[in-house]
Amino acid sequence: GQNIDQPTEMTATEGAIVQINCTYQTSGFNGLFWYQQHAGEAPTFLSYNVLDGLEEKGRFSSFLSRSKGYSYLLLKELQMKDSASYLCAVRFPYNTDKLIFGTGTRLQVFP
Amino acid sequence: EAQVTQNPRYLITVTGKKLTVTCSQNMNHEYMSWYRQDPGLGLRQIYYSMNVEVTDKGDVPEGYKVSRKEKRNFPLILESPSPNQTSLYFCASSLLALSSYEQYFGPGTRLTVT
């Protein structure tokens, strides 16, 4: 099966910048999503990348390199409410709608 | 209000007793999917449906059934639940399949099988 790797936990300070990495096997890749999930709640959509490069959306940006099988989510000006799990999800194989999630990165933001 | 609803939100049952978890969306979405979430394993796709009467297996379909008779509903059926199906279940929908459209998730159903 496809492996998607993310760090299990990260910590950061309020106001700082944090980068959460995600790596995946490149065969059959067809798009990558980032979701945010607060404890006990449903995931909510943050971003979608299918082409190489950086997509910026307010305090959050997502980067993709298809040749390297690599993506990151960049969170700027961290706030306490950003403490959550961040899930990387990859769609493959091409021409289906199967979505494979990583195990998620739990981010704790401290004052 | 646009939303995905699931019922029940919490369920404790016994091994072998058939159950159905309902999922409904009011956004006229074509694509619907079921996931289970377990500690250390993340979200895993059980089944998905790209439209009415079109369903397909995800990564962990064993022990589950689904149907898509109407666009808005996508129930998950456990014919003979077992303790290893104790999990947090999410239903999700998106406007179209094979696209960049985001998935909207329901609030989750916490199932315990004893």
Per DSSP E runs of 2 or more residues, the count of β-strands of chain A stands at: 11
> DSSP helix count of chain B?
0
User: What would you report as the Rg of chain A, rounded to the nearest angstrom?
Assistant: 14 Å
Mean pLDDT of chain B: 94
Compressed to H and E, one letter per element, the order of chain A equals: EEEEEEEEEEE
What is the distance, rounded to the nearest whole angstrom, between the alpha carbons of the first and last residues of chain A? 40 Å
General form of chain A? globular
Q: Indicate the overall shape of chain B.
A: globular
Tally of helical runs of chain A? 0
Structural class of chain B: mainly beta
**Helix-strand topology string of chain B:** EEEEEEEEEEE
Q: Please give the share of residues in helix of chain A.
A: under 10%
Structural commentary:
The complex is a heterodimer of chains A (111) and B (114). Chain A has 111 residues and is mainly beta. Helix content of chain A is 0%, strand content 54%. The radius of gyration of chain A is 14 Å and the shape is globular. Chain B is mainly beta and 114 residues long. Chain B has strands at 4-7, 10-13, 19-25, 31-38, 42-51, 54-57, 65-66, 76-78, 87-94, 104-105, 109-113. In chain B, strands 2, 4, 5, 6, 9, 10 and 11 form a seven-stranded mixed beta sheet that branches. A four-stranded antiparallel beta sheet of chain B has the order 1-3-8-7, with no helix packed on it. In chain B, a hairpin with a 3-residue loop joins strand 4 and strand 5. Chain B is globular, with a radius of gyration of 13 Å. The mean pLDDT of chain B is 94. Chains A and B meet through strand 5 and strand 10 of A and strand 4, strand 5 and strand 10 of B.
Short recap of the structure:
The complex is a heterodimer of chains A (111) and B (114). Chain A is an all-beta fold and 111 residues long. In chain A, 0% of the residues lie in helices and 54% in strands.
